[in-house]
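User: Show me a protein chain along with its predicted structure.
Assistant: Here is one chain, sequence first, then C-alpha cells.
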Amino acid sequence: MSPPRILFVGESPRDSAPTLSAARALRTRVGYETLFPDTATLGDTRRWSRLVRTCDAVVVVLYGIPDRWFRRYIALSIVMGRPVIRWWVGTDVFNVLQDQRIRKAALHFDRLVTSNITVATHLRDELASVGVVATFIPSLLDADSIKVSSISPTPKSLLVYLPASRKDFYGFDIVREVVDQNRDIEFIVVADDTHSLASYSNVRSLGWVDDMSGVWDRAGGLLRVTTHDGMPRMVLDALRRAKHVIYAWPFPGCRLARTAGEVQAAVTEFKNSEGDNRLGAEAVRALLDPDPAVRFALEIESTLVSTRWSSWFRAARTVVADTIHLKMRPDS
C-alpha cells in the first residue's frame, strides 16, 4: 500500500514558510508524499480536480480571507472525499483575533474543515475563545534539527531576531532599551538589514543569515519579545542547544518577560546564571517526544478513517464531483 499523499495549499512554499518544514518532516520522518499546487492549478477547476484525485488529504494554511474560488476548490475536495486539515501556525490566529472580518471568514471556512491543528497551546486556547476547536501538536522541525549533544559553551551574549520590515512587532523599543542598559554583554542581531542598532558598541548586527549554526555557537541565549507568536523554530532550536531563552510567551524552559522591566530583570538573571540551560533542553525534548511529525501523521490518518465511506457512497460522490467540476468554471 502506497504512503498517503498530502497536498499543502494556501501558503507559498518559499523562504521560511512553516509548510516547507512540515512537508519535509512528513517526507523524511514518516514517509509521506507531499506536494504543493502551482499557480495554474489554483486557477483551473479541472486541474484542481485531477490533482485532488491523486491526493489523500489537503492541509490548509491561511493568513487572511480566502476568496470564493479557493473556498469552492476546498468544498470540491470535501465532495471528493478528501479530508481538509487546517494548520494554524501563529500569525493566522493573531489575524483572527485582531480582525472581525477575518474571524467571521475563519468561522465560515471552518464548516469545511475536518480537523484543526495548532502548533502551540496558547494558540489552541485563543482559537477556542472565538469558537474554533483545535488539537495541539508542536511545530514540525526539519529532520536535520540540532541535537542536544551539540551543546557549546555558553557565552554572555544574546541573540535577537529583528526583521527590518516588522521591528515593532518584534519588540524593537524594548530591545533597544535593554541593549542600552546592558553594555557589558553582546547582542547579536539577525534579519535586520537596516542595521538599526549597529551604532551600539555592544551590538553585532549581521543582517540576514542563511546558516545560523555559527551564530548559535557565539550566543548564550535568545531574546524574543514578540507581540504575538506561535511556536517559533528559533525558540525550539535555542532550547535544544541548551541556550537560555527570554520569551514573551509562556513556554517550558524559558524566562517569561513581556514588559521592559520584566525583560531587564530576565537579562540580569541571565548574566548571573552559571552554565547551560539543561532544564530547557530537557523540557523541549519531552515536548517533542513523541515526534510531532508522527503525531501529525496520526491526526491525518484519523481523518482519513473518518471519511472512508461505503462503496455506494464512493460511486455517488464521484458522480457529484464530476458534475461540480464541469459547472465550476472561473468565467461562470
